[in-house]
Design a protein that fits this description.
single chain, 190 residues, mainly alpha, Rna Polymerase Sigma Factor, Chain: A, Arc Repressor Mutant, subunit A, 2 domains, 9 helices
């Protein structure tokens, strides 16, 4: 095996790599956390997923640091950790007893405003899933811009298109989402 190939069973990062990892993680933590919060809807789950991903990234830091796209590799680790998190929740759900108790992080049940704030997310999730099936490029642009906070230039680099195409896909995607969220609105109803 060559020295530049990744060895998953190899040694973890050494203290000499700590400073580089720390700088990298501090720089990119917010851009990694925002899409997790948007997808999980809880800061607690997003934080748990990000910390698990950070540990895995730290263990593979020499390989990640030497790559040409370290943030891309870390985003893949975060995405894989999110999927693993949901799979473990699904496995646990079959063994848990359901009760009417509220989660421990909402001991008072939450305020009416907090509960009402969560009201429209199911409809938005369904609309985004439909958009991803019918117009995957538009859905990707919407997610990258609004959930990950990337600029049109950054989205163009990541998707391999032009900034003008990204702006067009964002505009079309917003229009498509509006029609999915409020199907009763016709073109002439504006």
């Amino acid at each position: 095996m060559s020295d530049d190939a990744f060895d998953p069973e190899g040694p973890v990062a050494q203290p000499a790599h700590d400073d580089a990892f720390d700088r990298f993680f501090r720089k990119h933590m917010e851009s990694l956390m925002r899409p997790l919060i948007a997808r999980t809807r809880t800061v607690y789950d997003a934080d748990e997923i990000l910390m698990t991903a950070a540990l895995k990234a730290y263990q593979r830091w020499p390989y990640i640091d030497a790559s040409t796209d370290p943030i891309g590799l870390v985003r893949k680790i975060v995405r894989d950790c999110r999927i693993d998190h949901y799979r473990s929740q699904a496995r646990r759900a079959g063994r848990e007893f359901l009760t009417d108790d509220l989660p421990s992080y909402l001991p008072d049940g939450g305020t009416v405003d907090e509960l009402l704030e969560l009201r429209g997310y199911d409809q938005l999730d369904e609309a985004m899933a439909t958009l991803a099936r019918t117009a995957p490029v538009q859905a990707a642009c919407i997610r990258l811009h609004y959930l990950e906070g990337l600029t049109t230039t950054e989205i163009a680099e990541r998707t391999g298109s032009t900034p003008a195409a990204v702006r067009a896909n964002l505009s079309k995607g917003r229009h498509h989402l509006r029609s999915l969220l409020d199907p009763a609105t016709e073109e002439g109803d504006r």
